[in-house]
Design brief:
Chain lengths: 465, 395
C-alpha cells in the first residue's frame, strides 16, 4: 500500500476536519474510526443528539407553559419513542454527511480501531479482527475523550448513566440525580426536567459551572432553580446502590459532616471527561501521556517525530470547535502553512434555556490578573424583541480594557445567546474595542441589539436602558 | 491614451496639491503645453501634456493631494477636440477621491471616529491588531504620544463659523509649510537675538561712486546685499559655529558658504540660496541674487534652488522695518536681519554728525553659538560694512 502523508486516528470533530483540510491541501490522507459512524462523541453521543433533545423538550415546555400567555391553547403530550427516534434519524443523516465530505475530499475512511505501531506505522483492527498496517509520514492522534468515571458510582447505562446513556433513557424518570453541575449535567438535566422528571443536581464545589463568569453563574443558577432544578452544592457522592427500579445515593457535605441518602429513578454521572488515549500504542513511539492521560504538544507536535495530537486528547477546552480548529491548524502546519489557533478566544455555550455563552476573560480572571477593566451590561428585559417573545431573562455583559477599550471578555445569558456570541468572537479576533461594536449597526428589533447596547454601556452611553 | 503622471517632487518633498488645471476635459492640448499647476511644500511645479490630443480625463481634481507617480489625468493622443465635454467623461462632478497609493487596511469604527475628531493620521500609526490593523488602543496611544510632543500643533477643533465680514481661505501649501517650519524652528532651537548698528556711509559712498560703471560692466545693479553676503561669509569664516548645525548629539561644521537670501513674493516668503558665495565676486553675488529673485517672482524656483543653505540673510528694511528678530531657517544656526537705513545723529570724534544707520540683528541657536561668538560675528559684519576695504584686503 502506498505511503500516506497523513493518517488520522479518530473520526470526531478534530479528526474529520483535519482529514477534510488535508484533502483540500492535496495530501494523501486516511481517517480511521472504529465507532462505525463518523462524527465522534460530538455527533453520535454528545453535542448533536443532546441538542435534538434540548430543542424538542424546550418546545414541549414552551407549549405547556407559555403558549397560553400568547393565546394558544391545548395540551401537548410527549411521545418519547418518537422524540428519541427523530434524534437518532438526525444523527444518522449527519454522520452520512461527514462520510460524503470525506469522500468528496478524497479521504480514505478506514473503519476499525487505529493504534500506532512504531514510527510511521498505524495498525488498524477491523470489526472482523483482521489487522492492516498503514505507512505514513505523519500521524495525527484525534482520539478524543470519554466520560470520567466516579469511584463508587458505577455506570451501568441502565439506572446509572453517563452522558451517552442519558440520551436514550427509555422512559421519563420521575426523579433524576445529576452528579456534577457542569455544562453537560445541566443540559441533560434540563432535558429530563422539562419532560417531567424532578431533577436534583449534586455538586462537590460550592458553585455551578466552574469557569463561567461568577455573576453569570449565579444568575444562571437562580433561573434554573426557578425552573425547578434543585441544587445540592458543596456535596460529595460517596456511594451508589442501583436496583431494578432506582438508585440510592449516599451523600456527604464536601467539608465533612453527616451522610444522607438520596433516592432517584435514575442517576446521571457528569463530572467531566478524560482523554481517550489508552491502548493507542503510544509506547511504540515513546510518547508518555500525563497522569490524567493528556498528550502534551508544541504546536500540535508530540514528543515523537511525525506524531501530532489535536482536540480532547491534548490540553485546552474539551470542545468540538476547539478540536476542529486544532485539526485544521495542525494539518496546515504539516502542509507547511501557518496554522494557528487563538485559545484565548474559544467560545463556550450552554444550550439550556436561557442559553449561556461567553468568550474571553471573565471578571474573576481579570481581577486576578490585575487588569483594569470597564463593564457594560444590558438586560434582555429592556430588549424589545426578547420582551415580545416573553424571553426577558438574562443579560449581556461586555468587559473592556480601561485604557484601550479593547474587548477582553463577553458573558451572556439569555435567549439564543449561543447563536450571537460569534459576533464578539469576530470582533475580538480583530482586537475590537467596545466602541467598535457600539458604532456598528445592528438590526431592530432583534436580540442582537442587546449586544450593542451592552457595548455602549462600557463607555456609559447605553441608550435603551 | 497617454497618462499624465505626477513628476518626482524633489528631495524631502512627499506630496503635492493640485492647484489648478488649465484645461477642461474635452479641450485640445498640445504636447508640452502646461496643463496642471502643482503646489508643493516648497515650490509650484508645472505639469505639461505628454502628447498632442484631447484631455479626456481629470483624475486628480483641484485641491487634491497627490504623491509622486500618481495619475493626474489622461490625454487621448491625436483625438480632435469636442465642442463640449463628451458625455462619458464626467467633468463637473468632483472626481471621487483617488484611492490612496498604498491600499489602506480597513479602519475600525472607533479609529475612524478618533481620526475624524482629532485629525490623527491613522496611516502613520503602527497597528497591533490582526494583520497590522490599527486598534482603538493604538489610536489612543498615538494621540497621547502626539499630545506629549510639543512640536505638533494642537488638534484642530471643529472649524468655527465664518461671520459676515470674514472670509475663510485655505492656506496654500507654501503658507502651511512656512507656518510649520517657523514653529518647528522656534520649538527646536534655543533661539535668541543680538543687535548692533552699522554706519552705511562707506558702502553708500562706494556704491554711488561705481554704480553706473558696475552696471555697465556686469549688467546688474550694485546693491547692498552683495556687501552683506560677502561680509557674512567672512564673518562666518571667523566664527564657524554660526555656520554649523546640530545633528543629534553631533555638530556639523560646514566649510562651504551657501547663503540663503529671503525673497518676498506674492505667494509668500521663499529663501533661494546663493551657492558657494565665498568663491563669488560682488558682481557674481549680485547676478546670482538677481537671477534667483526673478525666478522667485515668476514662480519658477525649483526645489534645488532652495535647499542646502548654511546661513540666511533676511532684509526687512525693504519694507521699512527698523528692527526685528528674525526666526532661524532650521537646521541653520544663524540668520542676519537687515533693516531700513535711517539718518540718525551719531557722535563721531566728539561731534554730532548725521550718518545713514542700519540696525543689524543676528538670531542664533544658543545651543551651537555662544553669546561671545554671536556678538563677535555681528561686530565683524559691522566692521566689514563700515570699512569695505577690509573685504578687499581679507582683514
Amino acid at each position: 500500500m502506498a505511503q500516506y502523508d497523513v493518517v488520522i486516528i479518530g473520526g470526531g470533530p478534530g479528526g474529520y476536519n483535519a482529514a477534510i483540510r488535508a484533502g483540500q491541501l492535496g495530501l494523501k490522507v486516511a481517517c480511521i474510526e472504529g465507532r462505525g459512524t463518523l462524527g465522534g462523541t460530538c455527533l453520535n453521543v454528545g453535542c448533536i443528539p443532546s441538542k435534538a433533545m434540548l430543542h424538542a423538550s424546550e418546545l414541549y415546555e414552551l407549549a405547556n407553559k407559555d403558549f397560553a400567555k400568547m393565546g394558544l391553547e391545548g395540551k401537548v403530550t410527549v411521545n418519547l419513542p418518537v422524540m428519541l427516534q427523530q434524534k437518532a434519524d438526525s444523527v444518522l443523516a449527519l454522520t452520512k454527511g461527514i462520510e460524503f465530505l470525506l469522500k468528496k475530499n478524497k479521504v480514505d475512511y478506514i473503519k476499525g480501531w487505529g493504534r500506532i505501531a512504531g514510527p510511521g506505522k498505524v495498525a488498524v483492527k477491523a470489526e472482523d479482527g483482521t489487522e492492516t498496517v498503514l505507512d505514513t509520514l505523519n500521524i495525527i492522534i484525534a482520539t478524543g475523550s470519554e466520560p470520567t468515571p466516579l469511584p463508587g458510582v458505577d455506570v451501568d447505562q441502565k439506572r446509572i448513566v453517563d452522558s451517552t446513556g442519558a440520551l436514550v433513557i427509555p422512559e421519563i424518570p420521575k426523579s433524576m440525580v445529576v452528579i456534577g453541575a457542569g455544562i453537560i449535567g445541566l443540559e441533560l438535566g434540563s432535558v429530563w426536567r422539562r419532560l417531567g422528571a424532578e431533577v436534583t443536581v449534586v455538586e462537590y464545589l460550592d458553585r455551578i459551572t466552574p469557569g463561567m463568569d461568577g455573576e453569570t453563574a449565579k444568575t444562571f443558577q437562580r433561573i434554573l432553580t426557578k425552573q425547578g432544578v434543585k441544587f445540592k452544592l458543596g456535596t460529595k457522592v460517596t456511594g451508589a446502590k442501583a436496583s431494578k427500579t432506582g438508585v440510592a445515593l449516599t451523600l456527604e457535605p464536601a467539608a465533612g459532616g453527616d451522610a444522607e441518602t438520596l433516592n432517584a429513578d435514575y442517576v446521571l454521572v457528569a463530572i467531566g471527561r478524560r482523554p481517550y488515549t489508552d491502548g493507542l500504542g503510544l509506547e511504540t513511539v515513546g510518547i508518555v501521556p500525563d497522569k490524567r492521560g493528556f498528550i502534551a504538544n508544541d504546536h500540535f507536535k508530540t514528543s515523537a517525530p511525525g506524531v501530532w495530537v489535536v482536540g480532547d486528547a491534548t490540553y485546552g477546552p474539551m470542545l468540538a470547535h476547539k478540536a476542529e480548529d486544532d485539526g485544521v491548524a495542525c494539518v496546515e502546519l504539516i502542509a507547511g502553512k501557518a496554522g494557528h489557533v487563538n485559545y484565548d478566544l474559544v467560545p463556550s455555550v450552554v444550550y439550556t434555556f436561557p442559553e449561556v455563552a461567553w468568550v474571553g476573560k471573565n471578571e474573576e480572571e481579570l481581577k486576578a490578573a490585575g487588569i483594569a477593566y470597564k463593564t457594560g451590561k444590558f438586560p434582555f428585559t429592556a430588549n424589545s424583541r426578547a420582551k415580545v417573545n416573553h424571553e426577558g431573562e438574562g443579560f449581556v455583559k461586555v468587559l473592556a480594557d480601561a485604557t484601550t477599550d479593547q474587548i477582553l471578555g463577553v458573558h451572556m445569558i439569555g435567549p439564543q445567546v449561543g447563536e450571537m456570541i460569534g459576533e464578539y468572537c469576530v470582533a475580538m479576533e480583530f482586537s475590537a474595542s467596545s466602541e467598535d461594536v457600539a458604532r456598528t449597526s445592528h438590526p431592530h428589533p432583534t436580540r442582537s441589539e442587546a449586544l450593542r447596547q451592552a457595548a455602549m454601556g462600557v463607555e456609559g452611553w447605553t441608550m435603551q436602558a | 491614451m497617454a497618462d499624465i503622471m505626477t513628476p518626482a517632487l524633489g528631495e524631502s518633498v512627499a506630496e503635492a496639491t493640485v492647484a489648478r488645471w488649465t484645461k477642461k476635459v474635452g479641450d485640445a492640448v498640445k504636447r508640452d503645453e502646461m496643463l496642471i499647476e502643482l503646489e508643493t511644500d516648497k515650490v509650484s511645479l508645472e505639469v505639461v501634456s505628454p502628447a498632442d490630443g484631447v484631455l479626456t480625463e481629470i483624475v486628480a481634481a483641484e485641491g487634491e493631494t497627490v504623491l509622486p507617480g500618481a495619475l493626474l489625468g489622461r490625454v487621448t493622443a491625436g483625438a480632435a477636440a469636442s465642442p463640449s465635454a463628451p458625455a462619458s467623461a464626467p467633468v463637473a462632478a468632483p472626481a471621487p477621491a483617488p484611492a490612496p497609493v498604498a491600499a489602506a487596511a480597513p479602519v475600525a469604527p472607533s479609529v475612524r471616529r478618533i481620526a475624524a475628531e482629532t485629525g490623527l493620521d491613522t496611516s502613520t500609526v503602527a497597528g497591533s491588531g490582526k494583520d497590522g490593523r490599527v486598534t482603538k488602543g493604538d489610536a489612543l496611544a498615538a494621540l497621547e504620544a502626539r499630545a506629549a510632543a510639543p512640536a505638533v500643533a494642537a488638534a484642530p477643533s471643529a472649524p468655527r463659523p465664518v461671520h459676515e465680514r470674514e472670509d475663510r481661505v485655505k492656506m496654500t501649501r507654501l503658507r502651511q509649510t512656512i507656518a510649520r517650519r517657523l514653529k518647528e524652528a522656534q520649538n527646536t532651537a534655543a533661539m535668541l537675538t543680538t543687535f548692533n548698528e552699522v554706519d552705511m556711509s562707506a558702502v553708500m559712498a562706494l556704491r554711488n561712486q561705481y554704480k553706473d560703471v558696475f552696471e555697465k560692466r556686469h549688467g546688474v545693479k550694485l546693491g547692498f546685499m552683495s556687501f552683506f553676503v560677502k561680509a557674512c561669509v567672512e564673518a562666518l569664516k571667523d566664527v564657524p559655529d554660526v555656520n554649523a548645525e546640530i545633528d543629534g548629539t553631533d555638530l556639523i561644521y560646514k566649510n562651504h558658504y551657501d547663503i540663503g537670501v529671503a525673497v518676498g513674493t506674492d505667494k509668500g516668503l521663499v529663501v533661494p540660496v546663493v551657492r558657494d558665495a565665498e568663491t563669488l565676486s560682488l558682481a557674481g553675488i549680485e547676478k546670482a541674487i538677481g537671477a534667483l529673485g526673478k525666478k522667485a517672482r515668476d514662480g519658477q524656483l525649483s526645489i534645488d534652488d532652495m535647499q542646502g543653505g548654511t546661513f540666511t540673510i533676511s532684509n526687512g528694511g525693504v519694507y521699512g522695518s527698523l528692527m526685528s528678530t528674525p526666526i532661524l531657517n532650521a537646521p541653520q544656526s544663524g540668520i542676519l536681519g537687515m533693516h531700513k537705513i535711517q539718518d540718525r545723529p551719531m557722535v563721531v570724534g566728539g561731534q554730532i554728525v548725521v550718518r545713514p544707520m542700519m540696525y543689524l540683528a543676528l538670531s542664533y541657536d544658543h545651543r551651537v553659538v555662544d553669546g561671545q561668538g554671536a556678538v563677535t560675528f555681528l561686530v565683524k559684519v559691522k566692521d566689514y560694512i563700515e570699512d569695505p576695504q577690509r573685504l578687499l584686503l581679507d582683514l
